[in-house]
Every structure is written in C-alpha cells, then in structure tokens.
Specification:
Shape: globular
Number of strands: 2
Number of helices: 5
Helix content: 40-55%
Structural class: mainly alpha
Radius of gyration: 17 Å
Number of domains: 2
Distance between the termini: 43 Å
Largest sheet: 2 strands, parallel
C-alpha cells in the first residue's frame, strides 16, 4: 500500500517536507509512518490540548467549516453527502487571499472550471 501511495500520489503531487500535527490519531497511522520512513519527512507535533500552538491549521479549519454551514443554511439541506461534495468544490475553487491561487490550481497545476448547476 505504501509503495502504491508513493507511486500514484507522491509522484503526481509531490510530498511535504514537514508534517506538523496536533498528535491526532490520523497522523500516527501505519501508512503515514511507513511513508515517512521511505521519504525525508520530518514530523513535528504541537502540545496536546493547546490549539494555539497550531494557529494556522486552526484558522484553516475554521474557514473550511464555513462552507458546509453556508450550503446547509442556503439550501435547507440535511443531506451531508451532498453538502460535503459542494463544500469541497467551493473550497478548492476559491482564490485564497494570501496566495492568490486556488487550492486546485496549486495541487493540479491548472485551473479547474466550475459549472453552474441548472436552474
């Protein structure tokens, strides 16, 4: 699984140099540890239960959570699967003020086209 991840994901999108996490279980899984051993990735962790030490990520999470809330309020939808997909698209195609780029253009090296849903 690790070699497949490196061949398919890392070969296309590159890998990070530093993994900065909040000591969550998702960042200590076996696949990630194997990838870290195979690639020169330095692991850093914040102090437990002290989100202030991870301010950039906390701010990003707060921004990301505004998308599903806005979709749920706007469309009075409780269909989380639809809201999550719409939120992903909205986030990935939104220009970030600090970079001037969309996440999809940075990751995919080209700009994505967003189609308006039919009325």
């Amino acid at each position: 699984m690790t070699s497949l991840f490196i061949k398919e994901w890392v070969a296309r999108f590159d890998a990070y140099v530093v993994l900065h996490s909040d000591q969550g279980a998702a960042f200590g899984n076996r696949l990630l540890e194997e990838v870290r051993r195979m690639l020169p990735i330095h692991k850093m962790q914040t102090t437990p239960y002290h989100p202030q030490t991870n301010g950039l990520t906390e701010r990003s999470n707060r921004t990301i959570m505004t998308f599903p809330r806005a979709f749920m309020e706007r469309h009075q939808s409780d269909r989380r699967d639809e809201v999550v997909q719409q939120s992903r698209l909205a986030y990935r195609t939104s220009v970030h003020l600090t970079t001037g780029w969309t996440p999809s253009s940075v990751t995919l090296i080209f700009e994505t086209v967003t189609l308006s849903p039919p009325d």
